[in-house]
Amino acid sequence: MIAITGANGNLGKATISFLFDKTAPSNIVAVVRDAAKVQDYAEAGIQVRVADYNDPASLRRAFENVGKVLQISSAGFGETAIREENNVVQAAKDSGVRHIVYTSTLKPGDNAHFFAGRTCNNTERAIKNSGMQYTIFRNSMYFETIPLFIGSAMNDGQIYYPAGIGKVSFVFRPDIAEALANVLVSDNNGNAVYNITGSDAYSFGDIAGLLRSEKGMDAAAYFDVPADAYRAELVKFGMPEGEIGFYMSMAHSIKAHEFSQTDDVLEQLLQRPRLTIREFIRAI
Ligand SMILES: NC(=O)c1ccc[n+]([C@@H]2O[C@H](COP(=O)([O-])OP(=O)(O)OC[C@H]3O[C@@H](n4cnc5c(N)ncnc54)[C@H](OP(=O)(O)O)[C@@H]3O)[C@@H](O)[C@H]2O)c1
């Protein structure tokens, strides 16, 4: 059986929708915190198991008789995220899971600017030391985050963000999900680490250019605001300090080119071209 954690989240749900066409529903285990959120899964014959990343016993129960686990990275940050992700790896190992597939981030590292890069590095290490077979998807940022980054620029084209000329190899989340589903049903027994990216990397200046060329927003422009001014905006917005640190780390990371790498392996996993950023921008 194949278990998907975070199965009611965006990536988990999309992965299950692709898995549904590739294997019997009874072979899929959806691991969620709240079964009420996924009643449609149970009706479709998918097994729903309740577990929390903070509760190792619940994770071990969720992974009973499971051969492969898709570990969707924690939505938290800092020590909490590290503990939660270690719990999932340990529970998978304790439950006899053979193969773990993990959604990491581009350029993970103990000294990564991006806080999630530090968490993912710790988890990758735990997975590699666990003895389980592993496939690691080092995902770049989703296309779907672009509207969140550029905020009101979706209306007026004015992008304010402190990322300098840093570029991001944005990638379409459903393309990642389909590639994950392909890996989850494959019989490949080797370990692999994939950089999952779009075909090209784009700065926020480039995105302003795309708003002009693809959306006809002639006045679209990018303003590389000072980091302190951006932080002050987040404070004004009422964001908790921990989250502010996380979002600031993301901006620093982009500016330091941690998200600019590109790789074609996603198209090999999909056996078809990826969605392009132009197609995505045109559609939003
Ligand atoms: N590459 C990117 O651009 C990008 C952007 C955003 C996030 N991410 C990372 O990629 C992951 C997947 O993305 P996504 O779009 O699917 O995120 P998402 O829609 O926010 O889904 C996160 C999932 O994790 C589950 N979860 C959170 N805390 C949990 C806990 N303590 N125990 C069990 N489950 C828990 C959530 O369940 P509940 O519904 O119960 O909270 C949800 O199902 C995220 O969790 C985050 O680590 C990447």
Automatic annotation (TrEMBL):
InterPro entries: NAD(P)-bd_dom, NAD(P)-bd_dom_sf, NmrA-type_oxidoreductase. Residues 6-142 form the NAD(P)-binding domain. It holds the Pfam family NAD_binding_10. This is NAD(P)H-binding protein.
